[in-house]
Design goal:
It is a single chain. This protein has about 325 residues and is α+β, with helices and mostly antiparallel strands. It folds into 2 domains: about 10-185, Sandwich (Jelly Rolls), CATH 2.60.120.280; about 190-310, Arc Repressor Mutant, subunit A (Orthogonal Bundle), CATH 1.10.10.60. It contains 12 helices and 10 strands. Helix 4 packs antiparallel against helix 5, helix 6 packs across helix 8 and helix 9 crosses helix 12 (about 300-310). The longest helix is centred in the middle third of the chain and has 26 residues, at about 190-215.
Protein backbone atom coordinates (compact mmCIF):
# COMPACT_ATOMS: atom_id res chain seq x y z
CA UNK A 1 0.00 0.00 0.00
CA UNK A 2 1.34 3.44 -0.91
CA UNK A 3 1.93 5.79 1.97
CA UNK A 4 -0.08 8.56 0.27
CA UNK A 5 -3.50 7.34 -0.84
CA UNK A 6 -6.43 8.62 -2.84
CA UNK A 7 -8.90 7.53 -0.16
CA UNK A 8 -9.11 6.13 3.35
CA UNK A 9 -9.74 2.37 3.11
CA UNK A 10 -12.39 0.66 5.19
CA UNK A 11 -11.19 -2.80 6.20
CA UNK A 12 -14.32 -4.84 6.81
CA UNK A 13 -12.67 -8.08 7.91
CA UNK A 14 -9.71 -9.15 10.02
CA UNK A 15 -8.39 -10.99 6.96
CA UNK A 16 -8.31 -7.73 5.00
CA UNK A 17 -6.42 -6.09 7.85
CA UNK A 18 -3.77 -8.84 7.90
CA UNK A 19 -3.42 -8.75 4.11
CA UNK A 20 -3.29 -4.96 3.79
CA UNK A 21 -0.57 -4.55 6.39
CA UNK A 22 1.32 -7.69 5.35
CA UNK A 23 1.47 -9.25 8.80
CA UNK A 24 0.58 -12.77 7.68
CA UNK A 25 -2.61 -14.65 6.98
CA UNK A 26 -5.54 -14.40 9.38
CA UNK A 27 -6.79 -17.87 10.43
CA UNK A 28 -10.36 -16.54 10.35
CA UNK A 29 -12.39 -13.33 10.33
CA UNK A 30 -13.93 -13.63 13.80
CA UNK A 31 -10.99 -13.87 16.20
CA UNK A 32 -7.20 -13.88 15.93
CA UNK A 33 -4.31 -13.47 18.30
CA UNK A 34 -0.61 -13.41 17.54
CA UNK A 35 2.70 -12.40 19.01
CA UNK A 36 3.75 -9.17 17.33
CA UNK A 37 7.35 -10.35 17.17
CA UNK A 38 6.14 -13.30 15.05
CA UNK A 39 4.58 -11.11 12.36
CA UNK A 40 5.75 -11.61 8.78
CA UNK A 41 9.16 -10.10 7.98
CA UNK A 42 7.73 -8.06 5.11
CA UNK A 43 5.23 -6.20 7.28
CA UNK A 44 4.80 -2.48 6.73
CA UNK A 45 6.59 -0.24 9.22
CA UNK A 46 4.27 2.60 8.32
CA UNK A 47 0.58 1.71 8.39
CA UNK A 48 -1.48 4.13 6.25
CA UNK A 49 -4.72 5.54 7.57
CA UNK A 50 -7.66 3.13 7.70
CA UNK A 51 -10.89 2.21 9.44
CA UNK A 52 -11.50 -1.28 10.76
CA UNK A 53 -14.81 -3.02 11.31
CA UNK A 54 -13.70 -4.96 14.39
CA UNK A 55 -12.02 -4.50 17.78
CA UNK A 56 -8.26 -4.58 18.28
CA UNK A 57 -6.25 -4.84 21.48
CA UNK A 58 -2.54 -4.11 21.04
CA UNK A 59 -0.59 -5.16 24.13
CA UNK A 60 2.97 -3.83 23.85
CA UNK A 61 5.68 -5.21 26.11
CA UNK A 62 8.26 -2.92 24.51
CA UNK A 63 8.15 0.70 23.23
CA UNK A 64 8.52 1.76 19.61
CA UNK A 65 4.97 2.05 18.28
CA UNK A 66 3.50 5.46 17.44
CA UNK A 67 -0.23 5.77 16.74
CA UNK A 68 -1.09 8.71 14.48
CA UNK A 69 -4.71 9.61 15.18
CA UNK A 70 -6.53 12.58 13.65
CA UNK A 71 -6.79 14.36 17.01
CA UNK A 72 -3.63 13.20 18.77
CA UNK A 73 -0.41 11.22 18.52
CA UNK A 74 0.33 8.60 21.19
CA UNK A 75 3.43 6.47 21.66
CA UNK A 76 3.66 3.17 23.46
CA UNK A 77 5.94 2.61 26.40
CA UNK A 78 7.03 -0.62 28.01
CA UNK A 79 3.88 -2.52 29.10
CA UNK A 80 1.11 -0.48 27.51
CA UNK A 81 -2.26 -1.33 25.98
CA UNK A 82 -3.87 0.30 22.94
CA UNK A 83 -7.59 0.07 22.10
CA UNK A 84 -9.31 0.30 18.71
CA UNK A 85 -13.05 0.03 18.08
CA UNK A 86 -15.04 -0.40 14.85
CA UNK A 87 -14.95 2.76 12.73
CA UNK A 88 -11.94 4.32 14.48
CA UNK A 89 -9.69 6.33 12.15
CA UNK A 90 -6.06 5.46 12.78
CA UNK A 91 -2.60 4.75 11.42
CA UNK A 92 0.75 4.02 13.01
CA UNK A 93 4.51 3.83 12.65
CA UNK A 94 6.75 1.25 14.26
CA UNK A 95 10.34 0.11 14.62
CA UNK A 96 11.29 -3.25 13.14
CA UNK A 97 10.53 -5.45 16.15
CA UNK A 98 7.85 -4.89 18.78
CA UNK A 99 7.18 -7.50 21.45
CA UNK A 100 3.66 -8.14 22.66
CA UNK A 101 0.30 -9.42 21.44
CA UNK A 102 -2.17 -8.33 18.78
CA UNK A 103 -5.74 -9.51 19.43
CA UNK A 104 -8.51 -8.87 16.87
CA UNK A 105 -12.14 -9.87 17.28
CA UNK A 106 -15.60 -8.98 16.02
CA UNK A 107 -18.42 -7.80 18.30
CA UNK A 108 -20.37 -10.93 17.34
CA UNK A 109 -17.58 -13.29 18.44
CA UNK A 110 -17.28 -11.56 21.81
CA UNK A 111 -21.06 -11.35 22.25
CA UNK A 112 -20.88 -7.54 22.41
CA UNK A 113 -23.84 -5.35 21.47
CA UNK A 114 -22.50 -1.83 20.90
CA UNK A 115 -25.99 -0.34 21.28
CA UNK A 116 -26.86 -2.07 24.57
CA UNK A 117 -27.35 0.42 27.41
CA UNK A 118 -24.83 -1.45 29.59
CA UNK A 119 -22.12 -1.52 26.90
CA UNK A 120 -20.14 1.42 28.28
CA UNK A 121 -20.15 0.00 31.80
CA UNK A 122 -19.15 -3.49 30.64
CA UNK A 123 -16.51 -2.41 28.15
CA UNK A 124 -15.53 1.24 28.82
CA UNK A 125 -12.21 0.79 27.03
CA UNK A 126 -13.93 -0.25 23.78
CA UNK A 127 -15.99 2.93 23.38
CA UNK A 128 -15.31 5.98 21.23
CA UNK A 129 -14.82 8.02 24.41
CA UNK A 130 -12.15 5.81 25.95
CA UNK A 131 -8.49 6.65 26.27
CA UNK A 132 -6.63 5.15 23.29
CA UNK A 133 -3.67 4.01 25.38
CA UNK A 134 -3.09 3.08 29.02
CA UNK A 135 0.04 2.06 30.91
CA UNK A 136 0.19 -1.22 32.80
CA UNK A 137 2.06 -2.24 35.91
CA UNK A 138 4.43 -5.18 35.64
CA UNK A 139 1.91 -7.35 37.53
CA UNK A 140 -0.92 -6.31 35.19
CA UNK A 141 1.26 -7.01 32.15
CA UNK A 142 2.13 -10.46 33.47
CA UNK A 143 -1.57 -11.23 34.00
CA UNK A 144 -2.44 -10.28 30.42
CA UNK A 145 0.57 -12.17 29.07
CA UNK A 146 -0.57 -15.39 30.70
CA UNK A 147 -4.08 -15.13 29.25
CA UNK A 148 -2.75 -14.12 25.83
CA UNK A 149 -0.43 -17.12 25.78
CA UNK A 150 -3.35 -19.38 26.72
CA UNK A 151 -5.42 -17.94 23.85
CA UNK A 152 -2.52 -18.35 21.44
CA UNK A 153 -2.02 -21.98 22.47
CA UNK A 154 -5.73 -22.69 22.02
CA UNK A 155 -5.77 -20.87 18.69
CA UNK A 156 -3.05 -23.16 17.37
CA UNK A 157 -4.65 -26.34 18.73
CA UNK A 158 -6.91 -28.67 16.75
CA UNK A 159 -9.64 -29.19 19.34
CA UNK A 160 -13.10 -29.20 17.70
CA UNK A 161 -14.42 -26.94 20.47
CA UNK A 162 -11.46 -24.55 20.53
CA UNK A 163 -13.55 -21.51 19.61
CA UNK A 164 -15.80 -22.16 22.62
CA UNK A 165 -12.67 -22.06 24.77
CA UNK A 166 -11.38 -18.96 22.95
CA UNK A 167 -14.62 -17.11 23.64
CA UNK A 168 -14.26 -17.97 27.32
CA UNK A 169 -10.59 -16.91 27.44
CA UNK A 170 -11.35 -13.68 25.56
CA UNK A 171 -14.07 -12.91 28.08
CA UNK A 172 -11.58 -13.41 30.93
CA UNK A 173 -9.09 -11.19 29.08
CA UNK A 174 -11.69 -8.43 28.69
CA UNK A 175 -12.73 -8.64 32.36
CA UNK A 176 -9.11 -8.32 33.49
CA UNK A 177 -8.63 -5.31 31.20
CA UNK A 178 -11.82 -3.75 32.55
CA UNK A 179 -10.51 -4.06 36.10
CA UNK A 180 -7.26 -2.42 35.07
CA UNK A 181 -9.05 0.31 33.13
CA UNK A 182 -11.39 1.18 36.01
CA UNK A 183 -8.40 1.73 38.25
CA UNK A 184 -7.40 4.57 35.96
CA UNK A 185 -10.77 6.22 35.32
CA UNK A 186 -13.74 7.28 37.44
CA UNK A 187 -16.97 5.26 37.46
CA UNK A 188 -20.36 6.64 36.32
CA UNK A 189 -23.84 6.64 37.84
CA UNK A 190 -26.79 4.73 36.34
CA UNK A 191 -28.21 7.95 34.85
CA UNK A 192 -24.83 8.85 33.38
CA UNK A 193 -24.59 5.37 31.87
CA UNK A 194 -28.07 5.72 30.30
CA UNK A 195 -27.11 9.05 28.81
CA UNK A 196 -23.78 7.59 27.75
CA UNK A 197 -25.63 4.85 25.85
CA UNK A 198 -27.52 7.50 23.85
CA UNK A 199 -24.28 9.41 23.29
CA UNK A 200 -22.67 6.15 22.16
CA UNK A 201 -25.48 5.54 19.67
CA UNK A 202 -25.16 9.12 18.46
CA UNK A 203 -21.41 8.82 17.91
CA UNK A 204 -21.79 5.47 16.17
CA UNK A 205 -24.46 6.90 13.87
CA UNK A 206 -22.24 9.89 13.06
CA UNK A 207 -19.26 7.60 12.42
CA UNK A 208 -21.37 5.37 10.17
CA UNK A 209 -22.61 8.42 8.28
CA UNK A 210 -19.08 9.63 7.62
CA UNK A 211 -18.17 6.15 6.40
CA UNK A 212 -21.06 6.50 3.93
CA UNK A 213 -19.65 9.86 2.86
CA UNK A 214 -16.27 8.22 2.34
CA UNK A 215 -17.78 5.47 0.20
CA UNK A 216 -19.95 7.90 -1.78
CA UNK A 217 -23.27 6.48 -0.56
CA UNK A 218 -24.26 9.71 1.24
CA UNK A 219 -24.47 13.03 -0.60
CA UNK A 220 -25.05 15.71 2.03
CA UNK A 221 -23.23 16.95 5.12
CA UNK A 222 -24.54 15.47 8.37
CA UNK A 223 -26.68 17.63 10.64
CA UNK A 224 -28.33 17.11 14.01
CA UNK A 225 -31.70 16.66 12.33
CA UNK A 226 -30.26 14.05 9.93
CA UNK A 227 -28.59 12.06 12.69
CA UNK A 228 -31.53 12.28 15.10
CA UNK A 229 -33.84 11.04 12.34
CA UNK A 230 -31.59 8.03 11.76
CA UNK A 231 -31.71 7.35 15.52
CA UNK A 232 -35.51 7.80 15.67
CA UNK A 233 -35.08 10.50 18.32
CA UNK A 234 -36.28 14.08 18.64
CA UNK A 235 -33.47 16.46 17.66
CA UNK A 236 -34.00 18.76 20.66
CA UNK A 237 -34.01 15.81 23.08
CA UNK A 238 -30.87 14.36 21.51
CA UNK A 239 -29.08 17.71 21.68
CA UNK A 240 -30.06 18.12 25.35
CA UNK A 241 -28.64 14.69 26.24
CA UNK A 242 -25.42 15.32 24.34
CA UNK A 243 -24.95 18.72 25.99
CA UNK A 244 -25.76 17.41 29.48
CA UNK A 245 -23.39 14.48 29.05
CA UNK A 246 -20.45 16.26 27.44
CA UNK A 247 -21.01 20.00 27.83
CA UNK A 248 -21.02 20.39 24.05
CA UNK A 249 -23.89 20.48 21.56
CA UNK A 250 -24.54 17.69 19.08
CA UNK A 251 -23.77 20.15 16.30
CA UNK A 252 -20.36 20.87 17.87
CA UNK A 253 -19.55 17.18 17.88
CA UNK A 254 -20.50 16.86 14.20
CA UNK A 255 -18.30 19.84 13.39
CA UNK A 256 -15.39 18.32 15.33
CA UNK A 257 -15.90 15.03 13.55
CA UNK A 258 -15.90 16.85 10.21
CA UNK A 259 -12.57 18.43 11.11
CA UNK A 260 -11.12 15.04 12.11
CA UNK A 261 -12.18 13.62 8.76
CA UNK A 262 -10.64 16.59 6.95
CA UNK A 263 -7.41 16.26 8.93
CA UNK A 264 -7.28 12.56 8.11
CA UNK A 265 -7.50 13.24 4.39
CA UNK A 266 -4.90 16.01 4.64
CA UNK A 267 -2.45 13.88 6.64
CA UNK A 268 -2.77 10.57 4.86
CA UNK A 269 -3.88 11.13 1.26
CA UNK A 270 -2.60 13.18 -1.65
CA UNK A 271 -6.06 14.56 -2.42
CA UNK A 272 -6.19 18.26 -3.20
CA UNK A 273 -8.09 20.55 -0.82
CA UNK A 274 -10.80 20.96 -3.47
CA UNK A 275 -11.39 17.19 -3.63
CA UNK A 276 -11.47 16.89 0.18
CA UNK A 277 -14.01 19.71 0.31
CA UNK A 278 -16.13 17.90 -2.29
CA UNK A 279 -15.95 14.57 -0.47
CA UNK A 280 -17.10 16.19 2.76
CA UNK A 281 -20.01 17.81 0.89
CA UNK A 282 -19.04 21.48 1.34
CA UNK A 283 -20.69 23.73 -1.23
CA UNK A 284 -17.41 25.39 -2.27
CA UNK A 285 -13.69 25.51 -1.42
CA UNK A 286 -13.66 28.96 0.25
CA UNK A 287 -16.44 27.85 2.62
CA UNK A 288 -14.50 24.71 3.53
CA UNK A 289 -11.31 26.74 4.08
CA UNK A 290 -13.12 29.26 6.32
CA UNK A 291 -14.75 26.42 8.28
CA UNK A 292 -11.40 24.64 8.75
CA UNK A 293 -9.57 27.81 9.82
CA UNK A 294 -12.35 28.78 12.24
CA UNK A 295 -12.16 25.35 13.88
CA UNK A 296 -8.37 24.95 13.92
CA UNK A 297 -6.87 28.43 13.57
CA UNK A 298 -4.90 27.50 10.42
CA UNK A 299 -5.67 26.79 6.78
CA UNK A 300 -5.90 23.22 5.41
CA UNK A 301 -2.64 23.71 3.49
CA UNK A 302 -0.74 24.85 6.57
CA UNK A 303 -2.11 21.94 8.59
CA UNK A 304 -0.99 19.45 5.93
CA UNK A 305 2.56 20.88 5.90
CA UNK A 306 2.87 20.76 9.69
CA UNK A 307 1.25 17.34 10.05
CA UNK A 308 3.59 15.67 7.57
CA UNK A 309 6.55 16.65 9.74
CA UNK A 310 5.41 13.98 12.19
CA UNK A 311 6.42 11.29 9.72
CA UNK A 312 10.03 12.48 9.60
CA UNK A 313 10.68 12.41 13.36
CA UNK A 314 12.47 9.24 14.53
CA UNK A 315 10.92 6.55 16.69
CA UNK A 316 12.71 5.20 19.77
CA UNK A 317 14.29 1.81 19.28
CA UNK A 318 12.76 -1.09 21.22
Amino acid sequence: MNRRLQHIPILKTIGQFYHTFQIGTAPNDSFTIMRMEDQAKGKLLYMPLFRGNFFRLVFCKTPGLRFLLPDQTVETSRNSLYFAHPGKIESWQRVEVIYGFLCCFTPEFAGIDLLRSSFEKEFPFLTAESDSLISLTKKEANTLSQIAEAMLKEMNASHPDKFDMLKHLLHVYLIQIRRMYYKKVSTKSALQLNHAAIVGRFKKTVNDYFMQLASGSANERPSVSTISSLMNLNASYLNAIIKQHSGFTASSFIHEKTILEAKSYLMHTNLQVAEISYRLQFRDIPYFTRFFKKMTGITPGTFRTEALKKFSSPLPEA
